[in-house]
Amino acid sequence: MQPRASQIATQVAAMAMSFAVGLLLGPRLCAPPPAEVEPPAACPEPTTRIVERCPEEPPPEVEKTAPAKPVNPSRAQPIKRDPPLPESPPPTTAEDRQRLLAWARDQSISLQGCTRDPGTTYRLSVTITLNEDRGIEEVSLNAGPDTLTEGLRRCLEARIADWTLPDDLAPAHRRLVFGLTL
Fold first, then answer.
1. Rounded to whole angstroms, what are the CA distances from 172 to 11, 26, 76, 93?
2. Do strands 136-142 and 175-181 pair parallel, antiparallel, or not at all (unpaired)?
3. Considering the chain, what is the average pLDDT of its residues?
C-alpha cells in the first residue's frame, strides 16, 4: 500500500510542476506577435545661422589708484548707553492677589446680564489697565478658541469698565490679568 501512496504523491508533484511551468512560460509562447512599430520621424536638418553683427568690445579697464592713507586717524566714538529702566513695582503679595481675585469674582456677577447662548461656557482671559486714579482705563478680552459675538464682547467690556476698585485694594501693577468662566 505504501508504493501506491508514493506514486500518487509523485504524480501530484509532477502535475503541479507542469502546471507552474505552463503558467510561467505559456503567455510568452502563446502570445500574439507584437504590432509593427513605425520608425520615428526623421529630424529636419538644422539650418545654419550667420551672425550679422559682431558683439561689442568691452570697455577698457580703468586703473584705479589706491586711496591715500588718512593723515589723522579717526577717533573712536563714545558708545551710547541706553537709559536705565525704571524701578519695577514691588511684587504683589499672595494676600493681595487673593483679595484682587475675590474682588473680580464678586464683580463678575454684574456680567450675568449680558445675553449669551444658553448652555455655552465661555473661558475668558481679562486684562484690565488702571489709570493713575485707580480707575479702569482699558479692558481687553481674550476668548481663546471660544468665539464671542460682537454684541457679547461689547457688553462684557462695558460692564467690566464700570467696575470700581475698592479703596483697601492697592495693586502694585497698573495691569491686572485674570481668568473668568461664564
1. 100, 93, 44, 9
2. unpaired
3. 80
